[in-house]
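ok trying again, last paste got cut off:
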Amino acid sequence: MTDQEQFEEIFTTYITRQGSTELLEWMKKTDFFTAPASTRFHCACKGGLLKHSINVYRVLRERYFEEGDSEESFAICGLLHDICKTQFYKESTRNVKNEQTGQWEKQPYFTVDSFPYGHGEKSVFMIERFLRLKTSEAVAIRWHMGGFDDAARAGNFAISLAYDKYPIAVKLHLADLEATYLREKGTSDIPRT
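nice, full thing came through this time. structure:
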């Protein structure tokens, strides 16, 4: 089974809310299934965003699902938390000096779109164009970056309130960290510079 088939199977099995079919159809018309997950860190490769989304869902479900949790909420948060990266990265090249030969060589890298919306907020915005999120889902997706979020780094304490009130927000952040730094280590085609 391909990554896209796995994603679609999880999505269609657990996400049944009104608008979910339209959201999936829209995603198929974008680069979601071929886009990288980052510019040079984890899954900076074709299909990296898809791999990362599945990994986050799997960690979230395997490690943090408890009796009373919603299968649909876990699928929405795990699979869609980084939907903001759809149509976000553009492939390009830049000249990098080869230290061994002293010659300049073209190296691939990804540039980013500069839509002026925060990472988590943009994902919530994009999802809600198609389906209505529960408050806990919206908060979890909004704050999934944890301390890496610009608002948190600037001293915004809303993240602490979000994590205190909505356990799925903490769970999504931890799943994202594990997927990124443990399961996806060494998954980039782009060299770190």
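cool. The radius of gyration is 17 Å. The beta strands are 89-97, 104-112.
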